[in-house]
Design brief:
CATH architecture: Orthogonal Bundle
Largest sheet: 3 strands, antiparallel
CATH class: Mainly Alpha
CATH superfamily: Winged helix-like DNA-binding domain superfamily/Winged helix DNA-binding domain
Radius of gyration: 17 Å
Structural class: mainly alpha
Helix content: 55-70%
Number of domains: 1
Number of helices: 6
Shape: elongated
Order of helices and strands: HHEHHEEHH
Strand content: 5-15%
CATH topology: Arc Repressor Mutant, subunit A
């Protein structure tokens, strides 16, 4: 429950009016680079029609571009635009500032405990 509450609070620090799915797609593209639609759907764990809708809405807002894959003309490559990268950077800064303010209220020992917990949470969340 605590993780969900912190995640919800961080989402409230979001920049722009994107849905959680749209933010996730942009973050994935920013982190992994341009991807084919099928790869993106697989990573995001959504159906091809769903990813097509999300990408279409992002494209309509000028946050992603689509282009034919050089390897397979039937496939489409999606990449974030410069505007998307600016938006993502602003959102990360805002969330980081929120966390920094909250962490500053904790003792060094409490911060150390959180750092240890983060390692364990990463292991739990790993796709391995």
């Amino acid at each position: 429950m605590s993780i969900a509450r912190v995640a919800r609070r961080l989402r409230q620090e979001a920049v722009g009016d994107l849905t959680p799915s749209q933010r996730s797609v942009l973050a994935t593209l920013d982190r992994r680079g341009p991807l084919r639609m099928g790869e993106l759907a697989s990573i995001e764990k959504v159906t091809p029609p769903s990813i097509s809708g999300i990408v279409g809405r992002l494209e309509g807002r000028g946050l992603v571009t689509r282009e034919p894959s050089p390897e397979d003309a039937r496939s489409t490559i999606v990449r974030p635009t410069a505007s998307a990268r600016v938006m993502l950077t602003a959102a990360r800064r805002k969330r980081s500032a929120f966390l920094a303010t909250r962490l500053a209220r904790l003792s060094d020992e409490e911060v150390g405990t959180l750092a240890e917990a983060a390692v364990l949470l990463d292991r739990i969340a790993a796709d391995e």
